[in-house]
């Protein structure tokens, strides 16, 4: 399992480590906001388009080949800019990284599910989420140090070497999981499966958690700066968010496996706690920023392993990659949609109003679900 966790760390470190430092202070940093926005969108756009495709490919040929191919492609794309060192190749490298991450991220999630029995998937996805959270936390910091020492080329070089190391490790340690026989699936069959509540509910929760996480990382520093806080204080608040999410995920997964927590209760609680965190962001000063970071981290830490475990429990083994890829697509849409929503509301009103709108949206689903309880609650197996 450790190479799969390392793959999760790699995709998180690569996404945030580079994105946070493209506009840094090195000679080869991006100086135009338009170019910076384009490079950020290029990576995310590739993931939105390709994750379901590579997830389905993992079902067809096996998860391990797609995992290894994605890691090798990520290393090659990173080395491209490290060697070429020109603005044009930076676009190609960033596009290649996004496409490669689209391959090894859902295949790693599918392998986590396939290599663990249902009774241990909560803990497995909790650990996988823990290492991804560590990547999100350390990415901007370590990336900044590398850019300060040797510019973007050094950061891309380290990314290439890291991906190669994880690929070699995975090739040696991850067992081959043969693809399972699959019944013929039409487009209508796929649409019905993805429209089923067992897929939509966990995916919507994962998208909501990712939206809140992105808003917290992006806008809590803005709130802190408006309250007169320095960069150290606001940076610490973002670290609290990521560290709390990393701490909570393994515990939530173990509680699910032990039967102390059901998927439904955990997801509803996570959404309500996350909404409370966004509401706390409306409070002025350091107290509001830190309280928001801790609550958003706790809520998203609950949702992430439970959401993926619920998806794995309701998915036929032979379609695991397709489901994980489609769920990752939902997360990417939340990652982009949350900040866009808050920024749009803040443009016509205030940032606190933007927090309030997203908080209401996140709390609405759980409140409706609690008001109209299903006849029977499905518990994890």
Can you offer a commentary on this structure?
The protein is an all-alpha fold. It is 82% helix and 0% strand. The chain is built from twelve helices and no strands. The chain has helices spanning 2-19, 33-61, 63-84, 87-114, 121-173, 187-195, 197-226, 231-257, 263-280, 285-313, 320-348, 351-371. The longest helix is centred in the middle third of the chain and has 53 residues, at 121-173.
Q: Rg to the nearest angstrom?
A: 20 Å
Based on Cα principal axes, name the global outline: globular
DSSP helix fraction: over 70%
Question: N-to-C terminal Cα separation, in Å?
Answer: 21 Å
SSE sequence, one letter per element = HHHHHHHHHHHH
Brief synopsis:
By secondary structure, the protein is an all-alpha fold.
Please write out the topology:
Layout: H1 2-19, H2 33-61, H3 63-84, H4 87-114, H5 121-173, H6 187-195, H7 197-226, H8 231-257, H9 263-280, H10 285-313, H11 320-348, H12 351-371
Features:
disordered C terminus, 381 residues, globular
């Amino acid at each position: 399992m450790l190479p799969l966790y390392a793959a999760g760390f790699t995709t998180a470190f690569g996404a945030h480590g580079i994105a946070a430092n493209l506009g840094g202070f090195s000679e080869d940093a991006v100086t135009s906001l338009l170019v910076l926005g384009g490079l950020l969108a290029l990576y995310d756009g590739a993931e939105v388009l390709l994750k379901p495709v590579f997830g389905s490919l993992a079902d067809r040929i096996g998860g391990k080949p797609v995992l290894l191919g994605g890691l090798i492609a990520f290393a090659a794309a990173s080395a491209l800019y490290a060697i070429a060192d020109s603005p044009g190749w930076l676009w190609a490298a960033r596009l290649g990284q996004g496409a490669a991450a689209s391959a090894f991220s859902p295949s790693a999630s599918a392998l986590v599910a396939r290599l663990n029995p249902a009774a241990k998937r909560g803990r497995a996805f909790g650990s996988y989420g823990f290492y991804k959270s560590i990547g999100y936390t350390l990415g901007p910091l370590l990336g900044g140090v590398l850019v300060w020492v040797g510019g973007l080329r050094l950061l891309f070089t380290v990314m290439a070497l890291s991906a190669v190391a994880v690929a070699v490790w995975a090739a040696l340690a991850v067992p081959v999981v043969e693809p399972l026989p699959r019944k013929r699936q039409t487009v209508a069959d796929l649409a019905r499966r993805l429209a089923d509540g067992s897929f939509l509910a966990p995916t919507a929760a994962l998208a909501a958690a990712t939206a809140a996480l992105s808003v917290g990382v992006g806008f809590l520093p803005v709130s802190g700066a408006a309250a007169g806080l320095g960069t150290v204080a606001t940076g610490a608040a973002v670290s609290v968010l990521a560290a709390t999410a990393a701490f909570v995920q393994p515990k939530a997964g173990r509680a699910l496996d032990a039967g102390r927590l059901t998927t439904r209760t955990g997801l509803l609680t996570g959404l309500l706690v996350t909404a409370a965190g966004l509401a706390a962001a409306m409070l002025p000063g350091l107290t509001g920023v830190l309280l928001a970071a801790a609550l958003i981290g706790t809520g998203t830490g609950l949702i992430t392993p439970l959401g993926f475990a619920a998806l794995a429990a309701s998915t036929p083994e032979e379609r695991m990659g397709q489901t994980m890829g489609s769920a990752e697509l939902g997360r990417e849409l939340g990652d982009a949609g949350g900040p866009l929503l808050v920024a749009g509301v803040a443009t016509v009103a205030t940032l606190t109003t933007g927090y309030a709108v997203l908080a209401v949206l996140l709390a609405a689903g759980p409140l409706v679900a609690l008001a109209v309880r299903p006849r029977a609650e499905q518990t994890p197996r």
